[in-house]
Amino acid sequence: MLSPVVFLVFVCVFLPATATAVVGDGMTVTLPLERAFPTSHGVEVSQLKARDRVRHGRILQSSYGVVDFPVEGTYDPFLVGLYFTRVQLGSPPKEFYVQIDTGSDVLWVSCASCNGCPTSSGLQQIQLDFFDPSSSSTARPISCSDQRCALGEQSSDSGCSTQNQCSYTFQYGDGSGTSGYYVADFMHFNTIVGNSLTSNSSAPVVFGCSTSQTGDLTKPDRAIDGIFGFGQQGLSVIAQLSSQRVTPNVFSHCLKGSNGGGGILVLGQIVEPNLVYTPLVPSQPHYNLNLQSIALNGQTMPISPEVFETSSNRGTIVDSGTTLAYLAEEAYDPFINAINQAVSQNVRPLVTKGNQCYLTTSSVGDIFPTVSLTFAGGATMVLRAADYLIQQNSIGGAAVWCMGFQKIPGQGLTILGDLVLKDKIIVYDLAGQRVGWANYDCSQAVNVSATTSRGKTEYVNAGQIGNNSSPRSDSYKLLLSFILTSVLHVLVRGRNSIL
Predict the structure, then answer these.
(1) Which region is the signal sequence (predicted)?
(2) Helix H or strand E segment including 227
(3) Which of 96, 127, 302, 410 lies 20 to 30 A from 449 at CA?
(4) What distance in Å separates the CA atoms of residue 361 and residue 421, rounded to the nearest whole number?
């Protein structure tokens, strides 16, 4: 458990006004969200499904500041990609590319002397790095007697090494896995205050130091430095930062579905008048929602609500790490049959490698029905044709569109992935135990709610700063972070209980 005494020092400099952020006394933390792809080109739906199967195996059983980074990459469902952000850890700070993963809880990165960890990545712009605790003046291993080691049991198989280090093992359904030990060190944030004032802040967090990786994690084609778990358990960074009153206990994202892709990831609550909310299913390790019905053009389909009820092997999960979308097996065939019947006069149906596809010369928005997903409390998510179909190729001047909803044989899981979540604000309100959404142009700025030290709610306009800033290449920002960390280290020397 962290000591209640935590010293925070802010080192500030004036920089040119590069953002339209307007901040009151409250601040919210935003991390860069990027879409990256290997150097290869288009792939089949079957390959996307295979990638998602791997992804599903990875779903494991005070004043604030605003950070608004540019989003890079290109969104295209036929280029195998992943969403990632950059985090800075240690003293001096070192930057790591980590996958955004709402299906697990712990932040972990590859560490020095890692067995099986990839050393290069096929993803553009990615240069892999390794965290070395001996090179960070503020790194502290977590002992087996530390209360935070017990928190690790919520998210992994925790153990105790011969060196009295709290260790962990993550084993994924696809056979891949990682193991290592927990470390406490500073995570650094670049925060924007006002139009021209930039400050660097940091907070102590516990994260995994990976010393072994197996299976797909060792492959270099989509390799990154680690995984950033955004789950609800005690060792998630969200839980740690909110317990320290560094960030609110809520995060949001908006994934851009066209014109370059990318998006926004905010440790804070995006505010939009059209947001609708539904409660999270309680006592679940993932972001489970209570889906009650599906309608086509306003006509509710005759599917029993029991099909979507949450249990050990069924339920509805919101997962931004899944490329496609998945329906419970009992609902999939009735859904496909209803779609086929609705468009039978306007398209030519065909099956390609087991996937339901359609050949048409018309706009799919004009001929395919609107799909409405209704959740507990009456919240409805409306899907256009482009939210459940993927254009694959063309044949003789006609476009081939394939069904983006798939099924996982033998399972009752419904998973809402990127195909459904794109072009929407999605808010994960952990404090209120609810998830909200609204259609939105994710290339635009968003308003983020922030509660000030006086308890007043104010709103931050979080837009995109620009595309010429990279924390890894910007030694000036890293220098500021190092100055901050050095001052903090002096203050906390002898107070190891903070870490």
Answers:
(1) 1-21
(2) strand 226-229
(3) 96
(4) 27
Quote the strand ranges of 43-139, DSSP E.
82-89, 94-101, 107-115
* Residues 345 and 300 reside in one and the same domain: yes
Query: How big is the chain by its Cα radius of gyration, in Å?
Result: 23
Burial of 14 (0-12, 13-18, 19+ CB in 10 A): exposed
Alpha helix (H) residue ranges in 143-288: 147-152, 237-243
Kindly name the residue from 52, 146, 319, 387 that is annotated as catalytic: 319
Residue 406, H or E segment: strand 405-407
Residue that finishes a domain, picked among 391, 406, 439: 439
380 and 254 belong to one structural domain = no
**Per-residue pLDDT tens for 131-177?**
999 999 999 999 998 988 888 776 667 777 777 889 999 886 567 89
Q: Which of 228-232, 350-354, 356-360, 417-421 has the highest mean pLDDT?
A: 356-360
Quote the tokens at residue 313.
Answer: 């092997």
> Among 52, 68, 76, 101, which one carries the catalytic annotation?
101
Residue 344 sits in a domain whose CATH number is 2.40.70.10
Active-site annotation holds for 101: yes
User: Do the beta carbons of residue 342 and residue 360 sit within 8 Å?
Assistant: no
The answer to whether residue 490 is domain-embedded is: no
Q: What is the rounded CA–CA span in Å between residue 445 and residue 460?
A: 10
Residue at 421 is within a domain: yes
Decide if 492 is inside a domain.
no
Structural domain harbouring 130: 54-266
What would you measure as the largest C-alpha separation in the chain, in angstroms? 76
Residues 298 and 256 in one domain: no
110 and 259 share a domain? yes
pLDDT of residue 325: 92
Residue 319 falls in the annotated catalytic set = yes
Percent of the chain with pLDDT over 70: 70
